[in-house]
Amino acid sequence: MPKPLNHLSARFHVNGGHTLKVYKECHGYEGAQKAMAMQPDAVIEEVKASNLRGLGGAGFPTGVKWSFVPKTTSVPKYLVINADEGEPGTFKDKYILERDPHALIEGMIIAAFAIQAHKAYIYIRGEYVQPMKRVRAAVEEAYANGLIGEKTLGQDFKLDIVVHPGAGAYICGEETALLSSLEGGKGQPKLKPPFPAIKGLFDCPTVVNNVETIACLPLIFRNGAKWFADLGSEKNGGTHLFCLSGHVERPGVYELPMGTPLRELIYEHGGGVRGGRDLKAVIPGGISAKILNADEIDVNLDYDQIRAAGTMLGSGGVIVMDETTDMVRALWVASRFFHHESCGQCSPCREGTGWIHRVIDRMARGMGRIGDLDLLLDVSSNMEGRTICVFADAAAWPVQSYIEKFRAEFEEHIRSGRSIIASESKGCLTPEHAVIPAQAGIHLND
Predict the structure, then answer these.
(1) 8 A C-beta contact, residue 137 and residue 49
(2) β-strands 279-283, 260-261: how paired?
(3) Dihedral sign of CA atoms 15, 17, 18, 22 in order
(4) Could you report the per-residue pLDDT of 251-265, keeping only the tens digit for each?
(5) DSSP code of 423?
(6) What is each CA distance from 55 to 189, 250, 385, in whole angstroms?
(7) Does the CA dihedral 242-246-247-251 come out positive or negative?
(8) How many CB atoms lie within 10 A of CB 145?
(9) Around Cβ 26, how many Cβ atoms within 10 Å?
(10) How far apart are the C-alpha atoms of 90 and 128, rounded to whole Å?
(11) What DSSP assignment string belongs to 8-45?
């Protein structure tokens, strides 16, 4: 069995791995030193050559994104780190924030230098209390040791870093909603264009990058762009921290090359389906990704190959469902989440997520009607592409794919009138009923 790699995850299980002392013993900040000896444009070209892509879910080439920032401007430029990790099934950034925060800070120095930003923010999920403490302590260490501040790494380059806690809204993981929140407003998305690289935080050019994306930068500048590109697949450089959860024997975070087969992740690294049961379905990129059935898992995990298979890699949250999974219940859980988290700004999303959840809730209570499935498909299709951000699309895709792949099971549920939640008070599933496990407490490597 191929072994998981330990480039990004090298210090996850090292005592004191979150401290500056241990980080420096592991050649910490040498990558940033090399980058700052280059011209900013050369830094951007090196990142382009590495094939690093946005690992928060979008998969957009990182160096290309940076190149959109104006070279000369009369207003400040900003770097913002999206640490608002809220996609159910995804918990990889938590590991970096809590166990290797200096990798993030070093990456921020490189990114800020490349775009010539002198102020950077880390917008961190409010529920991540311990990771936030670790990040704040690491930032203080960095200031105290001259790694950031007026003379970043002793160079004539100023960089200040601010840690900003979010308030727990899923939509604030969307970059423009995050910026709205950071500006002190309601966390609601903005129309694009203009994109943040042109008009972002406080209407100034801004790059928003994910935690894992930025944590890759020290590796790239320590080992070279070609080394990083060769780790992954075509146009998908490096490794990825895959979050494996659900009905598998060994759930956890696995660092594997981009392009690793999904079957290998589940059956070799994850030990297969729990209890030797049969596989029923897999969500490959967090609950907003279209679901795959058991016959569709011979696909490689990178942004291009999995898109060709009709779904998306997202942020790498792979959720496994065994043969005992009730798909009506699974979709009920997902629809409740999206209905609760819609920011309400756009009518198709605000009303659509509500309609979807009410119809599925009725079905789950044994009161489904003939025609409900077509109604759900109609509502979801009228949400796609009709809102400011892609939240509505993300809410529609599970509905469409669950019904497409498991329609017979939904029809049988309607015909039988069987309730799966009749005994539950106030319409809420208890935790032991949830198909999708809680994000905490399921990590193999804890």
Answers:
(1) no
(2) unpaired
(3) positive
(4) 999 999 999 999 999
(5) T
(6) 20, 23, 23
(7) positive
(8) 13
(9) 16
(10) 13
(11) TTTTTTSTTTTSHHHHHHTTTTHHHHHHHTS-HHHHHH
How many Å apart are CA 439 and CA 19, to the nearest integer? Answer: 25
Q: Which residue has the tokens 């166990």?
A: 99
Which of 288-320 are b and which e, b meaning 16 or more Cβ less than 10 Å from the residue's Cβ? bbbbbeeebbebbbbbbbbeebebbbbbbbbbb
Using DSSP's 3-state secondary structure scheme, residue 151 falls into coil
C-alpha to C-alpha distance for 173 and 176, rounded to whole angstroms: 9
pLDDT tens digit sequence for 90-132: 999 999 999 999 999 999 999 999 999 999 999 999 999 999 9
Report d(CA 101, CA 363) in Å as an integer.
45
Tokens of 133: 């403490």
Name the DSSP class of 188.
-
C-alpha atoms less than 13 angstroms from C-alpha of 286 in its C-beta half-sphere = 23
In this structure, the chain runs to a length of 446
Overall average pLDDT of the 5-29 stretch: 95
Quickly tell me which residue has 């198909």 as its tokens: 435
Residue 270 corresponds to which tokens in the numbers above? 């994850």
Residue found by looking up tokens 């790059």 in the block: 207
Are the beta carbons of 226 and 48 closer than 8 angstroms? Answer: no
432 pLDDT above the threshold of 70:
no
What is the C-alpha to C-alpha distance for residues 412 and 181, in angstroms, rounded to an integer? 44
Half-sphere exposure of 212 (CA within 13 A, CB side): 30
